[in-house]
């Protein structure tokens, strides 16, 4: 962990200053829908059985310092990242090889692939695919080189259910509001200012993405020309629903696009594909209005990304049912697969040729290099030369400090850091399959920062680390003919997210209960 | 209570339809700041000591039917009402007589008057006065005449702390939202439509009123040219704070006017008037920023209206201190006094000459009549001819059904209805002072309606009655010279409020825990 860049930031607060900031956060957030449903540990179901209460989403008191060049670079390369992942999703053959390799350690990936295979067999009816992506970075500063410039290193690339875009624009607005009412005491040098707090259009930009897919769907395919809608596939109990509502409301007010929410667990009960319609439109019949069915143009998945959500064969039937339909999926199964950790690992393996292969037709070598340098090196633990080298490091307490060991399996959690890695590797015994279930990744060394987090009515001040996510929207046409050329129809950078967590908390994001939504205060370093 | 106009409205809901409406109300409301802090009976202080939780403000499921002509008439006469009350506030001599009469039954009114007298003695330094008024009506339909058209009858006229303008615009928008997502099942005839849901600009219009006063204040009067602000005088614990925040936020975003909130109980601790400044600017020193004092242009009272808030002599010192200052008061003491029940009673006494006296210089007799017919007749219980007649009625069970007995004292509550009046009068014995502490008012007979109220996560369906409030903004210059002519500078109608309560609940408004904020669905009857 590098030293604090500005040890005096954020300024120390008197209790009156802290009270003023917190009271304005509490009030402005609720006035502006920057809210979550409280967790059951905060408010028990007995007190609020109908889940009507809300509370300020976990947020930071101050915008966190972030190097301006890193921020601008992360934004600048987002459209290339969008294109990269559209290309990967389009390369069915390569994805198939990766899945084959993973099959024995990861049922979830295999099952996703099986869904794709089944739909492919009967023939896809929808070639358009919508990606709402988020590329997550940490700022990395080489701890061994005082002169090193900070740079961004990718933590992960999300191709499904990229969340918090409906809240992050509001946190940016919250911190601007606190600045505008002079709630922040002055600092030397003056750091928080209109020019250091960039605009954050995530809500408008992401909902425009869904609206663009909705429009690209075209006229109804049903013979009865049903009214059109988009469908958000959601989890049964979602504390973070206001994040999603912000997009749905914007779709309605700015684009006149009607949205319904459907729990993943009830997909088969409320949607259907008419058996007599070769174009396979997806029909949604709202329980509150059974005589008015709708045709679904766009499926926006805010569920179905975690193995734990597939509780029965019917969960997979539901996913297959949706994938078969003519609705534009955000994301398609292939796009979902493109976001698996294994793909990130392959791309980031130092000798990998794939990045160039995907991008060289449209991007210059210099531009591809800008993507390349955002990868923290990732190594497989297998019997390739690189794999063997990685196993050596992973078993050597002298060399393992700057690494993290991650399970390949999706939704696994349980990362293992530094010195805890060698004994863990030892505990695996000689089982090479178990080795292959993990990857070794260079640890990113983010600068130490301080901030306060407001959560469930309480403020915690301390050292934190931040993770910048840049959203991207991409609409493309899958190349399913012999040439297999994808056609990118829309591609834009779509706002950002800063998530900040206590330095002690090595796992998880805001939803997992550890962190807070933050905004960037740009600095020139 | 008249029969239901449209007995099939609102339509009967299936449980799925009700669930859909309620779930959208729960989500849209929090997304849009249509919220309150939960009462301690819903969420105990132990669970949420920092008062961070919020819940949907009590709202109705449907917009309530309201006769279009009544709605338009209430709006059309609002500027005349604004002018009337500006005139009353300007007629110090007459107000003095009224107070004298009330002195023995109402300490609160006397104390307010004493504040005015004290400031008058040393000389007022601010001639501008801002009124944010709300005139409340019920629809009245003569139950003895089937052919009678519905008409509006005034319940009360508020000159201080007229609340819910920050929520009512949002409830209008909520019901429009539910219409736009087809959450309302169709009715025959179709009643809820874009044309039956009028716009409600209460938030923008009321905050524009405060901004107008802020601007009219002019340049700082402090020699150091302090930055200017407005000050909301609030109660210590306010569940309905988001109603107020909506105005403060609009002031900042639309008018660049900074607002601070100051509990009435801490006025003397945080404000001051420099002893060396004859113009007596009011200085507010924020506890979070003691080195940056502000000069207050406008005092917006959302506290200080109830006798219960004046807990010690210092409460009165605080009110005097504010009244002495150069800040424009919303309202001034005289305007506050103009809104006392006694004034309404005098105006509404059938033979009263005062309405004409105040308005005849600017309004036609026909226009004055339109105000006059909104009065429900109110009688004193004293030894005038009208008073004696009223006492006769009040003690006669045969004639008392259509009346309500109200205490003259402000903030009294405890209205007594119909047949309960004669035994109550009897219990007063022969004490004419106790008689004089009450007025007798014709009971308004509102049409019976049905609606559902969503409150604290629960829906209650049933018969309801609605009360329409029309907001008014008026900025005028008190005539303090010999001529005493007031000068009206700004005067507009400023949106509306429909409050709806269960028919069983004879007392109180939304804040008192009985009712809900509603919107109007206009019908032609």
Detailed description of the structure:
The structure is a homodimer of 525-residue chains. Chain A is an alpha+beta fold and 525 residues long. Chain A is 34% helix and 24% strand. In chain A, the strands form five sheets. In chain A, strands 3, 5, 6, 17, 18, 19 and 20 form a seven-stranded antiparallel β-sheet that branches. In chain A, strands 7, 8, 9, 10, 11 and 12 form a six-stranded mixed β-sheet that branches. A four-stranded antiparallel β-sheet of chain A has the order 13-16-14-15. The longest helix of chain A is centred in the first third of the chain and has 17 residues, at 15-31. Strand 2 (53-56) of chain A pairs antiparallel with strand 2 of chain B. Chains A, B: GO terms for molecular function: ATP binding; glutathione binding; glutathione synthase activity; magnesium ion binding. Chains A, B: Pfam families: GSH_synth_ATP, GSH_synthase.
Map the helices and strands:
The structure is a homodimer of 525-residue chains.
Chain A: H1 15-31, E1 35-36, E2 53-56, E3 59-60, E4 64-67, H2 68-76, H3 78-90, H4 92-102, H5 107-122, E5 128-140, E6 151-158, H6 165-180, H7 202-217, E7 228-234, H8 241-255, E8 259-263, H9 267-270, E9 271-272, E10 282-284, E11 294-301, H10 313-324, E12 328-330, H11 333-338, H12 341-348, H13 354-359, H14 365-372, E13 378-380, H15 385-394, E14 403-407, E15 416-417, H16 421-427, H17 432-436, E16 438-442, E17 449-455, E18 458-477, E19 487-502, E20 515-518, E21 520-523
Parallel strand pairs in A: 4-21, 7-8, 7-11, 11-12
Antiparallel strand pairs in A: 1-2, 3-17, 5-6, 5-18, 9-10, 10-11, 13-16, 14-15, 14-16, 17-18, 18-19, 19-20
Helix pairs in contact in A: 1-6, 4-5, 5-10, 7-8
Keywords (chains A, B): ATP-binding, Glutathione biosynthesis, Ligase, Magnesium, Metal-binding, Nucleotide-binding
Family (chains A, B): Belongs to the eukaryotic GSH synthase family.
GO molecular function, one term (chains A, B): glutathione synthase activity
